[in-house]
Amino acid sequence: MTRFGLLSLAVASLVQTGLAGKCHPSKPVLSCSAGAQPGLVTSCEAETFGGLVLSTQFWDTYTGLESEGQLLPEKSFTLHGLWPDFCNGSWTQYCDLNRQYDPHPSPNTTTGTPAGTPVPPYSGPTVDTFLAALGRPGRTLLAWMNKLWVAHGQPNTELWAHEFSKHATCFSTFAPSCFSSEDLNQHTDLLVYFSAAADYFNRLPTYDWLAAQSITPSNTTGYTLADIQSALAARHGATPYIGCSGPRYNETAAGQGSLDNGRTVLTEVWYYYHVYGPVQAGKGKPVEADVNGGSTSSCVKADMAVWYYERTPGSERRA
C-alpha cells in the first residue's frame, strides 16, 4: 500500500469497467511496438493512438485559494495529469468535443492554431457532480483527488475537467467505443480515467524519492539538476523530464555571464511510459524522457542552481 493509501477496492474494480466486455489478447500488446497498430489489435485492447504515456506532477508552493480550503498535501507533489503523446513525441488535444467539460479550454482550438476546430467553453455541471452521482466509488475518488490532485489559481474541478477534456479524450483506450452506453450516460469514463491517473501517480512518490537523497524543499539551499534526475531515475527506472519555471539562470546575479539559460525554479516532473494493454490496466514500462530525442529538462544545469522552494505557510493540509 502506498503512503497515501490505495483507492478503495470499489474504485479499483470500476477502473476495470473500461476493460470489461472487450476481447483482449492473452499477451498484452506494448504501445508504440510493431503490434500496436490498428488492424492488428483493437483500440480498446492496446493504446494505438497516444502510445507514449506521461504521468505528470506539479510542485506548487501555494494554491491561491487557501481561503476556500484548497490546500496542498504535506510532503507530496500533486498530480497534474495522465497524457497521451504520439509515439514520435508529438501530441494532439480535445479529441472528442462531445466529452468537453473544460470551462476555459486552453488552447481554444483542437490544434492550438486559428485553423483548428474551436473548442467551446463548457458551462454545465462540474465534473465532481458526475463522480459524486456514482455513489461510494466516486465519493472515495473525489476525496483522494481533493487531497492530491490540487490546482493552482483555479478550483480543483476546473483542472480535472481540463485534464479529461484535453487529454483523456485522445487515448484510444478511453474512447467511447470502450464503454457501454450505460457507462457513458453515467460518466463512468471520467471515473475510469481519473482513477487510472491516480493509480499511476500513487506509484511515483517523487517527494519521498528526492528526500531519500537529502533533496528536500528549501528557501536557502539550491540543488543540482543532475542529482535530481539521478535520484528519480534510480527509482522510476528511466530519467523523467524535470520542468522548471522562474528566471533564466543567465538572467540572475548568480549566473551573470553564463551561457546556461535554463530556468531556476523546480515546478514539474513528467514520467514517461510505454504501456502493455489498455492504459487503465496500469502496466507501464518506464522509458527515457528523451526517447524521441527531445529534452529531459528545462532547468539550469549549473551546480546548486535549481531552487526547490518550501511551501508558503498556511498552504499545506496537515495530516
UniProtKB/TrEMBL annotation:
It is an enzyme of class 4 (lyase). The keyword RNA-binding does not apply. GO terms for biological process: RNA catabolic process. Keywords: Disulfide bond, Endonuclease, Hydrolase, Nuclease, Signal. GO terms for cellular component: extracellular region. It comes from the Eukaryota. PROSITE patterns: RNASE_T2_1, RNASE_T2_2. One of its GO terms (molecular function) is ribonuclease T2 activity. Residues 1-20 form the signal peptide. The active site is at H80, E163, H167. Belongs to the RNase T2 family. This is ribonuclease T2. It comes from Achaetomium macrosporum.
